[in-house]
Write a structure and sequence with these properties.
Blueprint (H helix, E strand, L loop, with lengths): L1 H16 L15 H25 L7 H7 L3
Helix pairs in contact: 1-2
Length: 74
């Protein structure tokens, strides 16, 4: 039951980022045991944030608008 919940929420989190990813690429996401802990602590929003950070660090996704605004000079 927990495994299915984690997979479902991970797919949902990935779907939130799919528009910012380049087309023609495949992505493999491996759910580690820590993901269940993150879900318990921060819910779907925490998983979306962590996945976004991972995709940005890999160079696959553009920074979020909040990070872009923070990087702009005042």
């Amino acid at each position: 039951m927990e495994r299915n919940r984690v997979k479902r929420l991970l797919r949902e989190a990935f779907a939130a980022h799919v528009e910012s990813l380049p087309r023609g690429h495949d992505y493999v996401v491996v759910a580690r045991p820590e993901l269940a802990e993150l879900l318990e602590r921060d819910g779907l929003a925490g998983v979306q944030r962590a996945l976004g950070e991972l995709l940005e660090a890999s160079g696959s996704a553009a920074p979020t608008s909040a990070e872009t605004k923070a990087a702009e000079p005042s």
